[in-house]
């Protein structure tokens, strides 16, 4: 039978002018994916380096380096004088080969030499290593998002309290903290969330986390098992999609339109989903709020089918055209898991956030939180609790809301002046603006090389063709900083 030609898709290889090392890395990733999906079977011959390099238009050395990496990881086997093949015992790793493996037991093979065993890394190792890049933070320069510097930095009350509280015996180093979080902080938060976010909660429903990223991870752990289906928006925060992939969840991406997450499309595409992960106040990354009709449709679905809604409320306090939108959790405290964070209104480096869990899930979330770290540092929790209780937190939010509103306008004005042909996504909250333009990955790479901190939107999309645009944060940067950086962007684009 003629051999089916091997088609290798290299993610984001659009930037063929990327450094050879980067192209080799993506090629290795594509081959790894093809092996794991069963498109390349155990023992199957892979094309020679010469022919693959020729068909992909790459240097032969680039392909050789990618093959060598996969040999080291145990995906491929290379023997002198014979063709490179997919490793013989890979059916134990590849999910799609699992049935095959059950049907015919693997022939006994001599044990590999000890050094080869030590060098072969399991697939999870390379998947986690890839996350180090995918989730890496941008430097604190324009247009990096959530950089609380300058005028929007924490005020003198914070510094004064911080010093005072840390010196008290309560905040001194002691035994293990309560994994659910400091009761005083949970009380202050419950008061704030009821009043400012319309969240229906008591301190007992709150679990302190290391930020929303951990809240998403805990939600996926507590609510879902490997193989379960869940809905996620398209586009979506990469920190969420990475969590769901890590947990082995089958993700149904759901398009968003001017009303946000399309509930009808979700129900049609994947009615068996057990949970929906949404950003109702401010869709990430585009920015529209979820309409009331859709909120009701989503909570009706959750209530009538015993499903869960995970509400990521990452930056809703920062609305400029009016009051922040109320949280969805207020519509159904039994089915909505609310995730909040101090990252946007105080600082991401604090690594503190919170979950408001339905009563029935509080113990499970607390247990899962204990499992991944035993709880959050106590002294920081004491400081925030006092900052909130003494009223400084709400004053700080009012102050930064007005400053961020001004910075946002400065950025919009500069973009309209320097890049009048490009469209800006209308949105009235948050800490970034979406600028629509073509070839976002290539533009972002060029901008980063020139010292600008920008993120491309298309890697967050599942649909094809993906949306293409840049996320530009206005952070705590000054007007001259923002204006000069927009000028640089214009030069890059011309
Ligand atoms: C939509 C969204 N969810 C969650 C997070 C993570 O936030 P945290 O710093 O609280 O972990 C971010 C961070 O940018 C985000 O944009």
From TrEMBL:
Quick one: where's region Disordered? 98-122
SMART domains named among the record's database cross-references: HTH_GNTR
Task: Report keywords, A-Z.
Answer: Aminotransferase, DNA-binding, Pyridoxal phosphate, Transcription, Transcription regulation, Transferase
Q: Which residues form the HTH gntR-type domain?
A: 21-89
Signal peptide location in the record?
none
KW DNA-binding (keyword) present: yes
**Transferase among keywords:** yes
Under Gene Ontology molecular function, one entry of this record is: DNA-binding transcription factor activity
Q: Which family does it belong to?
A: In the C-terminal section; belongs to the class-I pyridoxal-phosphate-dependent aminotransferase family.
Q: What is this protein called?
A: Aminotransferase class I/II-fold pyridoxal phosphate-dependent enzyme
Q: Organism, per UniProt?
A: Duganella guangzhouensis
